[in-house]
Amino acid sequence: MSTELLGVVVMYALTVLLAIPLGRYIAKVFKNEPNALDFLNPLERFIYRIGGVDPTREMTWKQNLVALLTINLVWFVLGFFLLLFQGSLPLNPDGNPSQTPDLAFNTVISFMVNCNLQHYSGKSGATYLTQLAVMNFLMFVSAATGMAALVLIFRSFLPQTFTTVGNFYVYFTKSITRILLPISLIVAAILVFNGTPSSFDGKDYIVTMQGDTVGVSRGPAAGMIAIKHVGTNGGGWFGANSAHPLENPNYLTNMTEMIAQTLIPVAMIFALGFFINRRRFAWVIYSVMTIGMLCLLIPTIVTELHGNPAIAQMGVAQPTGAMEGKEVRFGPAASAYWSIVTTIISTGSVNSMHDSSMALSGMMQLLGMMTNAFYGGSGVGILNFYYFIIIAVFISGLMVGRTPELFGRKVEAREIKIASIVALLSTLLVKGGTALAAWVFLTYGDADWAVKPANWLNNPGFHGFSEMLYEFTSSNANNGSGFEGLGDNNIFWNVSTGIVLILGRFIPIIGPVAIAGLLASKKYIPESSGTLRTDTGTFGLMVFAVIVIITALSFFRR
Amino acid sequence: MKTHLSPALRLTLIFLVLLAVIYPLIVAAIGKLAPGGGAGETVTVNGKVVGYVKIGQKFTDDRYFNSRPSAVDYNAAGSAGSNKGPSNPDYLATVQARIDTFLVHNPGVTKEQIPAELVTASGSGLDPDLSPQSALLQVPRIARLRRISEDQLRQLVTEQTERPFIGVFSIEKVNVLALNLALEQPR
Questions:
Q1: What are phi and psi of B185, to 5 degrees?
Q2: Which among B131, B117, B137 is positioned nearest to B170, based on CA atoms?
Q3: What is the residue extent of each domain of chain B?
Q4: Which end of chain B, C or N, has fewer beta carbons within 10 A?
């Protein structure tokens, strides 16, 4: 057991050790300072030329948001039609069918918003073409969208008054060429040498030792598995995601995938510190997020190692802990660590089945997604954290009787209104959605859909209700993991979660970018001894309290 | 929005080429150098492919070391866990039935000796491994049916046991397919 815990500690320590230098590098990339990958300059110039983009042009926050939303709309249209007709398009060696319109709608939105709800199963619901041109492609560009939006916010922290906050296209392009692509190539290389397939060969059929005839799904999986973690999307090539022995063959690949998904979210915190030259502020954010993570992680590991009490009652031994839905090669400790990281970071990949986790672990996973601000996804993590900072600044200002200020700019009514709307949105989407689902389940049990509402739930009682709650929580957080027992491939779930996904993605991007743009254009007042300091433990505590209170008020009130 | 439509379309095109064509081709090229050429490493007996090294197989025959229960019956065309909640009564009845079956097939074993993994399904349904305890527990049964000494079988399990990664991380495990292949080998 101690070796298992040691594995978790080492995984986390390695992540932070790599994230600090990576953060320094990311700051250089976005500040346009000389860095190690400058040999890519010609490639980027070529991309700007083809794209018709002037990289030196500065844009206002509104122009940047319109650019961001327009390119996302293009991806939506492209992905929707590719999925709708994938059955008749090339690169379909296994002869998989086209997706239904509602499933295609859900799938393309899911990947466009850097989520992986995946109401289909990778091995029969998508073709090699759509896996590459829709899923794999969107995993890169959606992560880059989040990172680019975050850099717009970084810019607003700089100590001058601006009307422009940079160029979305440049941040977007550099996120891919300088950060996501190089790291993904390294991760993919580690995966293929440990047994993850990368060739375009179709499904294989074999007769096993015992004489059963079985299929073996394969395909160019390694590249997608790399970016699914590096970009914190989480969408699996195979149905069982990273529990699958080809998607995550051994403990080394498990560590690699784990570090890959935590790396950029943590590095972005340090990048913020280097970018605006306030490293203490970055450490305050990092500490708040880490404490939040530990509050969720420790109970989960303890309860999973303890095993299932109902099985203990039957008298069998649980030397390693709870094993339903878990793989022997990872064990409960590494599975518990993964289940928390993947829910706080909005990756949503899994190496064990969350539906079979212990009840307490399931609650911690839900809380991880409800706060969605402890590290968080590539880029969007700090965007989510940002509105908590704004609210904390406001409340602290009120408490000490000073005008609330963040880095020399007054935080006023308009900013607070936007932050409050963003903060209140999740409770509406999650609880409203779950209520609607529960009502349909009770009232229209026999509705003639692909899965009848009466058959949605895989487990009776409270746990069945949690399956529905989890699905909406996961959609709102753009997480993508699920209590996968839920029968979700039907028009109700495809459409309702599709809408929640879009709102849960773009409002928390538009809101913070708007606040940042508004703040950037305000008069810069140099900090004095009267300024509320944001790089202290006290302020960290304040932010933590705000997160806890807002989450508790949003989700615990009856 | 109109001014942004043209760069949106053109950037999408160039990144489609870079990310959906060039990137997977580079990864596939790297994969050619890996064992199995990037198509999955196979196990061959007498010139016939009997399995994939990494993917678990169904072993229910008493003469073999049995693998864990699976929600997809070890058909690697798909993959899934049971998704049963920890207190689901149907699920607990299934586990109880598995315990009873194991006890019938392994006389002399008491239920306190059965590790949970032998009566619970894995997340992928394709788990290739068992803990050494789970393999050792099956030794008396196999020794009796195959008329091999228990010591010899225990030796075999020890030989096939993979140590934790770099000696310290995770737990010891045995690949069931490799173990059963070794069992079939003439000695």
A1: -65, 135
A2: B131
A3: 54-184
A4: C
| Residue A519 burial (CB count, 10 A) | 25
The Cα B7–Cα A475 span in angstroms is 30
This prediction's pTM: 0.94
Contacts of B14 in chain A (CB under 8 A): 47, 50-51
- Partners of B51 in beta bridges: B43
Nearest to B78 among A51, A173, A239 (CB): A239
Q: ipTM, 2 decimals? A: 0.95
Given pLDDT bands bounded at 50, 70 and 90, which one contains residue B35? confident
Taking contacts as CB-CB distances below 8 angstroms, the residues of chain B near A355 are: 81, 83-85
- Chain A's closest residue to B60, CA to CA, is A210
Please judge whether A323 and B117 are an interchain contact, meaning their C-beta atoms are less than 8 angstroms apart. Answer: yes
- pLDDT tens for A503-558 read 999 999 999 999 999 999 999 888 777 778 888 999 999 999 999 999 988 888 65
Q: With CB atoms and an 8 Å threshold, state whether A314 touches B181.
A: no
User: Which chain B residues touch A185 with a CB distance below 8 Å?
Assistant: 23, 26-27
Residue-level pLDDT at A182: 97
Residues A391-423: tens digit of each pLDDT: 999 999 888 888 888 888 999 999 999 999 998
Q: Using an 8 Å Cβ cutoff, are A240 and B72 in contact? A: no
Radius of gyration of the CA atoms of chain B, in A: 23
